[in-house]
Structures are given as structure tokens and as C-alpha cells.
Design brief:
Blueprint (H helix, E strand, L loop, with lengths): L1 H11 L5 H16 L3 H6 L6 H15 L4 H5 L2 E3 L2 E3 L10 H13 L6 E5 L5 H9 L4 E6 L2 H13 L4 E5 L12 E6 L4 E2 L8 H6 L6 E2 L6 H13 E10 L5 H10 L3 E7 L5 E7 L3
Helix pairs in contact: 1-2, 1-4, 2-4, 6-7
Length: about 280
């Protein structure tokens, strides 16, 4: 076991900081052995040549800065397991805070909810799992992303209605919702140079980037959809670009939403907006 840990550290020390390597070590060993890390430490298995080969394959991919979540095709979000691949963004901790905000403000049973741009299904699944008898729908433009979301819904035993919808075009109007939530593309094209290599080279750009000259196009469009599809006093929730908080608030107020509130994440960055439809 000690040799395996040393091998992982020595292989990656030229590529990653020590703190990140420690996390990789735990994830790799749990993935390879299919056992909790502490259990492996207490009762180490025999690391066969086949297991060593599997570890080396993972290490070689990490040296190319491929995200560990894509390599092992799994991650955790809001305490739930999720399958991920390169067709979906890896769910971020900041988005867990958005889920927490929605849960804290919506405790009624049987609420109807729409997640726009669902990706892996992380928001929709987490809300369906933690709200009482919520009626959850989720849209995405990507068939491949929807395949992932459906897998995650089934794996977490949630009942979600998925639909392939391009929100910049026509959209279904046959349902009304008490809650609409979206974490749409919001990273500016000009911000690419500030991003980590593992994000730029591996995560889907259509789910990340918007043109600098129309940075809030999805927020404007989804706000219009919400005006049409929310029930009276229904709520709209967004995750946002930290630099666009005031602009997004102004857009929602101009469109007639009330109780528009901008919230910060744990890093003290503007990250979430909540608004209410007039009754």
C-alpha cells in the first residue's frame, strides 16, 4: 500500500500540488479497489499487476490534465453519486449552494419545478431527492447530456420528466411551474485565458461560454420563459457570473420580477439570484 501511494505521488508531483495529489490518491485507490480508503489502509489488498496497470492508465490521463471525474466517470453532488463524461459539465460545489438556497425557501409538498440546461441532471436530481413529492422537469439542448441525466435520475431513484429543448427557440408551454432554476452558460469568451487547462480542454464549451457582446442572452431568454411559465408568485433561481450580478438583477427588475435578491457563495462571490413573479 505504501509503495502504491508513493508511486502515485512521485508520478504526479511535477504536475499537481501536494494537496491535490492527496485527493487523487484517495479517489484512485477507492476506485481501483472498490473499497473505502480507510478500509484499504487498515486491510490492504494484494495489488496485482493488473491493478498497477489500471493505476498507471489513470496517472497517464491525469498527466494530460484530464479531470479525475471524467477518468473514473463519477463524482458526488449534494451527497449523491453522479455519472459524468465529457458530454456534461462536472457539477461544482457552488451549485450545491444554489440547491441549498432553493430547498431552504421551498418546503411545501408537491411543488412543480423546471431545471433549464440540466446537463448531468445534478440540480434536478438533488432537488427531486430532497423535496417532498416535487414534480420535476428538466430541459437540455444536448441529447448526449440528456442521456447522462436520465442515467443519473435512475441511479438515484428519482422520477424526472426530461425534454430536449433549445431555449433560444421554441419551448413547451403546456405546463406551469412553481420554481424555475437554471445554471446556464455564463463564462465570457474573454475569460478563457484565465481558466484551468483541464476545463478548457475537456469540458463542453457550449455549456460554459457566451460571447462578450451578449453575455446575458440566456438570462434574458430564461427570464422571459419564466414570465410565461411560472405560477403566480412562482420563483426563478439563477447561478450567475460573479461579475454580472448587478446587471442580471437589473434585467429581472426591468422585466417586472419582485423580491429580486443577489446572494454570495461561500467564497464571498456574487453567485446566485432569486426572483419572484408578481401575483
Amino acid at each position: 500500500m505504501r509503495k502504491v501511494v508513493s508511486h502515485i505521488k512521485e508520478s504526479l508531483e511535477a504536475y499537481y500540488p501536494e494537496s491535490e495529489i492527496s485527493g487523487f490518491t484517495r479517489i484512485i485507490i477507492e476506485y481501483i479497489t472498490k473499497k473505502p480508503y480507510l478500509q484499504v489502509c487498515v486491510d490492504p489488498p494484494v495489488f496485482t499487476p493488473e491493478l498497477h496497470d489500471q493505476i498507471d492508465v489513470i496517472l497517464n490521463r491525469l498527466k494530460q490534465y484530464e479531470p479525475i471525474q471524467y477518468i473514473i466517470e463519477e463524482t458526488e453532488f449534494y451527497g449523491l453519486p453522479f455519472f459524468v463524461n465529457r458530454n456534461v459539465l462536472i457539477p461544482r460545489p457552488e451549485t450545491e449552494e444554489l440547491v441549498e438556497l432553493i430547498l431552504s425557501e421551498n418546503k411545501k409538498s408537491g411543488l412543480s419545478l423546471l431545471d433549464i440546461g440540466t446537463g448531468s441532471g445534478a440540480i434536478a436530481v438533488a432537488l427531486a431527492k430532497n423535496m417532498d413529492r416535487a414534480l420535476v422537469s428538466a430541459w437540455d439542448i444536448s441529447y448526449k447530456a440528456l442521456d447522462v441525466a436520465v442515467l443519473n435520475s435512475k441511479a438515484n431513484s428519482t422520477d424526472i420528466s426530461f425534454g430536449r429543448v433549445d431555449v433560444l427557440g421554441d419551448y413547451p408551454t403546456d405546463k406551469k411551474y412553481d420554481i424555475i432554476v437554471s445554471n446556464p452558460p455564463y463564462v465570457l469568451e474573454s475569460e478563457k485565458e484565465q481558466m484551468e487547462q483541464n476545463v478548457l480542454e475537456y469540458e463542453p464549451h457550449t455549456a460554459l461560454f457566451v460571447p462578450d457582446n451578449n453575455a446575458l442572452l440566456f438570462y434574458k431568454r430564461i427570464a422571459d420563459i419564466a414570465l410565461n411559465l411560472l405560477t403566480p408568485a412562482g420563483r426563478l433561481y439563477f447561478e450567475i457570473n460573479q461579475a454580472k450580478g448587478a446587471e442580471t438583477v437589473k434585467i429581472l427588475e426591468t422585466k417586472g420580477f419582485t423580491d429580486v435578491a443577489l446572494s454570495q457563495d461561500l467564497s464571498k462571490k456574487d453567485r446566485m439570484i432569486r426572483a419572484k413573479l408578481k401575483q
